[in-house]
Amino acid sequence: MNDWTTSHDRVLAQRKAEGWMFLIEAARDLRTTGAIAPSGKALARALTDPVRAQAPRPLAVLEAGAGTGTVTRTLIPELPRASRLDIVEANPRFASRLRHLVTTHPHLAPAQVNVNQTYVEQLDTDQRYDVIVSGLPLTNFTPVQVERIMARYMELLHPGGTLTYFAYLGTRKARALTASRAEARRHAAVDEIMATYQRTYATGRWTVWANVPPAYVWHLQRPLVSAEHSEPQSVEARR
């Protein structure tokens, strides 16, 4: 057995363990877990594209709903020198795993990152971020929760900053077929809230077919000035 085989087997074992951990935590509480499976590599890369787009200047980055750290592991090597990464994860078991990841990751000094065990809408900070990477599938939440989360995201962004998040394909149709009427109405109300944000702030949407399940990745940008006076500008438009 060579080093590549040993490393490959270790990665496969890690992915299997993370998959089971997600299923267990989802059964406990979907609000703190957010998903039933870790994000795939293609989804993680699409979510972290805004970080690569704004390099090499130092960035302030927030990752919300980091789970077991699948996206975090993709994000860390992309951070420009002297950047700051704040991670928010409400699930205490995931937060503990993330702290271990941070302290053992070869590409990141511990002083560059903070892991906060809390909900993002309750994050106590004066920091503003160039990029927010959200791992929270918002269709799991109530409309009130979604409004609070999205308002907090926009508050935490620098003017011109980018929020990147994902949504699984086909969830509304699936829930319409299998869920109660109340659940279907909740899902539709959340979709309408997100559609309003997309119409106002979206700079792009991509479909990640390689993820399981497939997902859309959205990029939303906080305007450089009040949305009442100017349309949101893309990253390219600001350069």
Automatic annotation (TrEMBL):
It comes from the Bacteria. The keyword Cell cycle does not apply. This is Methyltransferase domain-containing protein. Keywords: Methyltransferase, Transferase. InterPro entries: Methyltransf_25, SAM-dependent_MTases_sf. The keyword Transferase applies. One of its GO terms (biological process) is methylation. The lineage of its organism: Bacteria, Bacillati, Actinomycetota, Actinomycetes, Kitasatosporales. It comes from Streptomyces montanus. Residues 61-161 form the Methyltransferase domain. One of its GO terms (molecular function) is methyltransferase activity.
